[in-house]
């Protein structure tokens, strides 16, 4: 499926991607490689918003499963996303890309609060805006935060860069014969519980007609290929023509 011309996109990266080959934390060298991918995409003329998960540092649901208070654990996860956002900001600015971090949890010493009109202005000036701390409330994932910011910023698509090259009918890591979809509808993703994003994020994209493009960010140059209509990807949309 050929995507329509895009002027503004939101790129959602899982926190695990920032680990590189490590088991935990942030690999600065790999973050710099990711930043080069983002810079190359920006140089095509796109306005780019970024949302990065926090699973490489702390995952709220995992903490809750081990007996922590769920709300408290989710707030800890939000702080992890701020750390990742600052790491990505540092890498992008090393490459000469002007970047602003906006956090849904206010922390004025390190970044701006989320202010939509200010974010719009940053994008108009050619800056990349990294949205951190999810939606600023517990019980919502960074997928929901990404969908919310994509809708709020009138993005043409939500690009989800993961370790997998698309959406499959079953887990390709445990089932070698799993089939990858080229396109799939929001309804099928929700009905079959396909592991794209959490249900509230998929529903928010559906209600605002925002295509979700799932691709592998680990493959060098893949972001640029996906944006140019090439590359291996799955598009979640109700417009399958």
Automatic annotation (TrEMBL):
Chain positions recorded as ATP binding sites: 12-15, 55, 59, 162, 168, 171
Activity control mechanisms: Inhibited by UTP.
Entry annotated with the keyword Kinase: yes
CDD domains: AAK_UMPK-PyrH-Ec
EC numbers, comma separated: 2.7.4.22
Domain (Aspartate/glutamate/uridylate kinase) ranges: 7-216
Enzymatic reactions: UMP + ATP = UDP + ADP
Binding-site list for UMP: 54, 74, 135-142
Alphabetical GO biological process terms: 'de novo' CTP biosynthetic process; UDP biosynthetic process
Annotated metabolic or biological route of this protein: Pyrimidine metabolism; CTP biosynthesis via de novo pathway; UDP from UMP (UMPK route): step 1/1
GO molecular function list: ATP binding; UMP kinase activity
The keyword NAD is annotated on this UniProt entry: no
Superkingdom of the organism of origin: Bacteria
Location, primary (coarse class): cytoplasm
Subcellular location field: Cytoplasm
Enzyme class, broadest EC rank: transferase
Role this protein plays: Catalyzes the reversible phosphorylation of UMP to UDP.
Self-association state and partner proteins as the record states: Homohexamer.
Family according to the record: Belongs to the UMP kinase family.
Protein name per its UniProtKB record: Uridylate kinase
């Amino acid at each position: 499926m050929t995507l329509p011309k895009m002027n503004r996109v939101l790129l959602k990266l899982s926190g695990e991607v920032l680990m590189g080959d490590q088991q935990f934390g942030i690999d600065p060298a790999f973050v710099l490689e990711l930043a080069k991918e983002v810079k190359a995409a920006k140089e095509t003329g796109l306005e780019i918003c970024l949302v990065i998960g926090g699973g490489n540092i702390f995952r709220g649901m995992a903490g809750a499963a081990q007996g922590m208070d769920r709300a408290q654990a989710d707030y800890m996860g939000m702080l992890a996303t701020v750390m990742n956002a600052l790491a990505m900001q540092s890498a992008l600015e090393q490459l000469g890309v002007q970047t602003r971090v906006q956090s849904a949890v206010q922390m004025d010493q390190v970044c701006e609060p989320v202010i939509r009109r200010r974010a719009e202005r940053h994008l108009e000036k050619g800056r990349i805006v990294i949205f951190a701390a999810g939606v600023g409330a517990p019980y919502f994932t960074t997928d929901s935060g990404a969908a919310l910011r994509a809708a709020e910023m009138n993005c043409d698509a939500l690009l989800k860069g993961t370790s997998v090259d698309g959406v499959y009918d079953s887990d390709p890591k445990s089932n070698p014969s799993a089939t990858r979809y080229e396109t799939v509808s929001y309804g099928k993703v929700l009905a079959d519980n396909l592991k794209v994003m959490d249900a509230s994020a998929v529903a928010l994209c559906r209600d605002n007609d925002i295509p979700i493009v799932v691709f592998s960010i680990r493959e060098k140059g893949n972001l640029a290929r996906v944006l140019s209509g090439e590359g291996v990807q799955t598009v979640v949309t109700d417009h399958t023509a």
